[in-house]
Amino acid sequence: VPDGKSGSYGNLDGGIGLRRDREEMWEGSGREGGVQSNMWSGSYRAGLNRSLGSVRDAQSHPDPPQQAIELSSNRRPSPVNRLINRFDGATPADQQRGLPPAPQHHRAPSPHVMPKLYTSPPSSTQSSVGRVQTPATKVPGNSANRRPANEPTQVDLIDSQVTPDLLLDQVQSGETSKEERVMKTVYNILRQGSSESDVVISHKVKAIFQKIQSIMPKEIPGDEWAREKRGLETKVAQLQAALQQDRRDPGLKAELESCLDENLQLQEMLDRKKRELNETQSELIQLRMDKEHAERQVRELEDQLVEFQDELRRENGSKTDLVSCQAQLMELHQLKQKLEESLRQRERELTALKGALKEEVATHDREIEALREQYSADMEKLRSSMEQVSQSQAGIEAERLRVNTTVRSLQQQLEDCRDESSHWMEQFHTTRDELRTTKQELLQLRLEREEFEDELKELKDRIGTKKPQTPEPRPSEALSQELQRCSADLQKTKSELQNQRTEFDKKVMEVISIKKSQQNQEAELRYEMDRLKEQLQKAKEEFAKAQEKNKRLPSQAALSDLEQKLVEAQSEASQLKEKLSLNEEELEMYKSRLNKAQTDINGLHDAQRDQEATHTRLREKLSRLEAQLQSNATESSEAELALHSEVRGLRSELDEAKRKASRLTQELHEVAVRLEAADRDKETLKQNVGQLEEGKRQQERALEKLNREVESLNASLKEENQALRSQLEEQKERTRREVQEAQRHGNEAKSELERNELDLRRLEEETSRQKKELQLVCEERDNHQLDKELLTNRLRHLEGEVEASKTILGEKTREIRILDDKLKRVELELEEERSTVEMLTERVARSRDQIDQLRSELMQERSSKQDLELDKNAMERHLKELRNRVADMEGHSRSSVGVSQLENKVQELEDQLRAEEREKNSVLASQRRMERKLKELNLTLDEERHAHTEQRDQLLLKVKALKRQVDESETELERMDALRRKAQRDVEEQVELREALQARVTALETNIKRKAVTRPALDSSALSSDEDDDSLYDSSTITSILTESNLQTSSC
């Protein structure tokens, strides 16, 4: 058969679609073809419905034939797709060639696009005969008991059924030439499947048309055509009988079932891949969260570095203070030299003004004592304020201890919540028992299924007993095939039950996972209160119902148990209320503590202001004293030195006060930090409460979902049971009807046996040919199996790539964990460095105190040195005076006693001078020692600062390295995202390829079946014109042309 639609199951739908289009066209045109279309839609529709029913029974699809007809009509309304169906002889030809599905048009196609390749009337009629051989042969095939296959009425039927499309072809053949029509059809085909330009498509059309012209044979005259037509009609009748036998072949049905099973397996593989992709997406989301956490830690580290930099700047400020102190010391030294010079000049004046100076010094001493008393009073105030600050710190520490106690109480509450989660687990066990009861119901369903299998076995036995009664083997084969179908349906039901069991087990595991998540979320106090109240109400209702049902008093033991349960529930509810009240009281305590801390901070600020006021007073007093010193500097050097010493002492005291003020500011800063930490703790507590409430809501939602799923499962199980029962009843009725039909066929088969004996001889001759064709078909099947194996290998390769991507993701997660560990180590190192920095600051403070003490000691020693020098000068002057007196006395005549006394005095004075020189030398040595100590302290400070800068640089380098690692991890994550997207695209492409290949496999299987039936007719020498015309559109030639014109979009 040239068109190849008589033996393919898949092309029946396509034939129906063509028939409907033709009917619509002929209904629109008011010609005489109405009667013929009615005849077309009569017997031909009945034959198609029967063939469709047999195909659907073989594929276990219980859909009615009308739906299949609608699907086929919706699937191929366009004439281009009909051409492709005609080329390939299968429904999924569009998918095989990579063409997109045509849009659905519910009106008749335009006459310009219809494929018409015949100019002469004989050739068109030949093509129409080839096209409509299946309906023409199916009508006598179904009514084989009434009339033979080679009657003239069948020929008239064929002519009447083929007219609609042929008449349109003849009407349009006068308008356009044959070449233009072929060019238009090929152009439309190429235009639908490609996005190339019109010029390229026109070149391709010309090349294809040239190849078609090279393949086209010459036409055959009308006499030979009539003979071939008659021979074809006889062979079609013979092939119709062979078709009916081949349709009952169980091997083809088994192949279809195996293809369906393979499709199901591939769908399961797709679901697995999608789940794995979802898991990878969740892992990527976790990696992003970890990345954000790392960025937050890096920001915190940067903030800490900024704090370290501020501290270093402060230390640099202390350096500037040291430099300024040294400059002040130099200035003081210069002033000292100037003062010494002025003192040398004014020593003579001072001797005359000693008496007046003594009185002024006494008055000055009184003023200084008053200043000292004021200073002592201010210092006492400072000490009292410091004591208050220390007391406030002790209060803050006490509050910290209280916070710790509250945290411990919250931990105890968490443990109580864990106990309550154990109660939830008990409820879970009860639900598990309920699930077990549902499993028992499933076992009952299994028993019913086994009973049904026993009934089927009894039916088989009955059929076996009825076999010797029926002389024909065909109905028994039909019954055995139907029994096989029933057994296949049973196996499918078994597989569905197993799938339901697996789904049920999965849902049980999901329930277990949800319960574990509930154990992790251990704070569901209010929800449990409501739950306990509802349980109490339910218990009361159940108790009332039990009393109403039984209408008698229950036993005392049951009453006591119920009362105990009620008491326990009430105790639990009271405990939960107490816990809630305790939490509220703790929140109020936190608020009160925060208010107290704020009041303490305000008091500290006031104390700081008082200290600043005292500092201003002291500075004013210092300025006054310096003015007095400047006014009195011309009067007395000794008073100036004393005043300088007092000023220095006051300055040292001022420095100490400044230090204490800085300490107070630091303590205030620490108190503020502690308050901020307390505020943060408060906010975290609020967030935890919100999170707990959200967790409670989520658990409620999860429980509601579980209840809904359980209810849906029960409903689905009931519906499936009802469906199974209805299917069993339908199968019983089918078996009864089939037995009755088998009996009828047995009566009819006797008459057909005589006819079939003649046909068997002819078929034996054709079997030899079919064996050869079967070998070819086996080779094609082997090729298809190789294609399938290639697909499976490619899928495995993709799975390997997905696994490799998973391993890469695991390695990235490990690297991220390593980075987290590194960050933790860096944090620990930062904490250690903070401790070291604090130690260094303490050392610096101590060294500053030591430097101040050394400075005060140096000033004292310098003042003592100056006093000694003054005494020395005075003694030298006194010695000179004494020597002058001795010389004067020597000039006079005095007694030796006075001279000896004077000499003794001179020796004593010389001894005193020597002692004073020794003391001076010792003071100089001690001064040198102090200077050496100062130098050493400066060196140690410089070394410590250098070490601190080095540590800071190291930290900066570490932070930069961490940033680089984070950036690298981000780039790697982006790369992984790209790989994941690429893998998804590859999977989607593979799925599309697999679908296309499945469609191609089904098309090839239908082609194989069609060829297995139609090859004997094609091998006959009588076929000339019709075979040659349709061979132009054979699937192999068209596929070769399309592959040469680069239209293949799918590849194995």
Offer a few descriptive terms:
1052 residues; mainly alpha; 2 domains; 20 helices; elongated; disordered N terminus; disordered C terminus
**What's the number of structural domains?**
2
> What's the pLDDT, averaged over the residues?
66
Compute the number of helices. 20
Overall number of strands: 0
Portion in strands: under 5%
Give me the Rg, rounded.
56 Å
What kind of sheet is the major sheet?
A: none
Helix proportion: over 70%
From N to C, what is the helix and strand string?
HHHHHHHHHHHHHHHHHHHH
- Determine the structural class based on helices, strands and strand pairing: mainly alpha
Any idea what the shape is?
Answer: elongated
pLDDT < 50 runs, ≥5 residues = 1-80, 86-164, 171-175, 470-475, 1020-1052
End-to-end separation in angstroms reads: 30 Å
How does this structure look, described?
The protein is mainly alpha-helical. The protein folds into 2 domains: 11-220 and 1024-1044, no CATH class; 274-886, no CATH class. The protein contains 20 helices and no strands. The model is unreliable at 1-80, 86-164, 171-175, 470-475 and 1020-1052 (pLDDT under 50).
